[in-house]
Specification:
5-stranded antiparallel beta sheet; 252 residues; 44% strand; 10% helix; 3 helices
């Protein structure tokens, strides 16, 4: 990853200061400036502070989390603590350069006790973009991955909206600081209630990034491409358990 002291640093410092002025998480704002005023970059993220306040248990024995810890390139550690009305309902945070500035942001599933899950993108200052909450308690989404899925130079983020109910693949593009819905397709899923693993991911077998999931009834492996503003899906064979999906992700 490129250092923040290079061409992107003034813009990021300005963005960080604006967020601090507006009163975004104080603990984050206190730790932004390193030596010489450069903004450190995120190099590691993990969920912390297991909690027992939502009781959805969609991921089985995987804890529901009350916080997230960010380790920065200068060695400092920042901890985000969510309010009592929210949790991180997820397996692990994902580091991705979402905005194309050369430094990683964090993608996480954040759930409201009353409005269900939403997908959020974080930097050192807090949430910089998010999808709408699904809208009801105990409604969740399962991430697939993030990449430039259609070759337009912008990052798209894919997930399955309500993998046990709607089974809806949704693709959002990070564009000018916002997540914009660009395509969706039903009949696909990547999680079963109680599983501690999400059964999906991205692969590139020479044709660009593709989304790998299963079909509605878990009988077939499906590969989906973002093309022409829509989602084109191909059946690539039977689903015979996690090993078959891992082989598909490895282009085998």
């Amino acid at each position: 990853m490129a250092g923040l002291g290079r061409s992107g640093a003034p813009r990021l410092r300005a963005r960080a200061l604006r967020r601090c002025v507006r009163g975004v998480v104080a603990a984050l704002c206190l730790g932004l400036a390193g030596a010489g005023g450069a903004v450190a970059q995120i190099v590691e993220a993990s969920y912390v502070q297991p909690v027992d306040r939502y009781h959805h248990d969609i991921l089985g024995d995987t804890p529901e989390w009350g916080g997230m810890r960010l380790r920065l390139s200068d060695g400092r550690v920042l901890t985000i603590t969510l309010p009592e009305s929210k949790i991180f309902e997820d397996i692990a945070p994902r580091l991705v350069d979402v905005d194309g500035d050369g430094d990683a942001e964090v993608i996480a599933v954040e759930t409201s006790a009353s409005l269900g899950a939403r997908l959020t993108v974080w930097d050192e200052t807090g949430v910089i973009a998010a999808t709408p909450n699904i809208g009801r308690r105990n409604r969740w989404l399962a991430p697939i991955g993030a990449a430039d899925l259609d070759g337009d130079g912008k990052i798209e983020i894919a997930y399955i909206d309500r993998p046990h109910l709607a089974r809806l693949l949704r693709v959002w593009r990070f564009d000018q600081g916002r997540l914009v819905l660009v395509a969706e397709r039903d009949g696909l899923t990547n999680h079963r209630i109680g599983d501690a693993e999400i059964f999906s991911g991205l692969r590139d077998c020479g044709e660009g990034p593709r989304m790998v999931t299963v079909n509605r009834d878990w009988s077939r492996l499906m590969v989906s491409a973002l093309a022409g503003g829509g989602i084109v899906t191909q059946d690539i064979g039977p689903y015979r358990g996690p090993a078959s999906l891992r082989a598909a992700l490895d282009c085998r």
